[in-house]
Specification:
Elements (H helix, E strand, L loop, with lengths): L2 H21 L4 H22 L14
Length: 63
Amino acid sequence: MSLITLVIVLVVVGVVLWLINSYIPMQSTIKKILNVVVIIVVVLWLLSAFGVIGSFDAIRIGR
């Protein structure tokens, strides 16, 4: 995965999160939970993309 792809994905995720926070009316606690979940997912994805942690292909949920 190229560096340009990483930057584009981060910008898109940031803009989408900003749009959701700005224009969709929600309780502040739900917004905080959404922000934390998105940040955790992005950090895990970045760690996986740079090879710090293993691939998520080995993780199985269910059978």
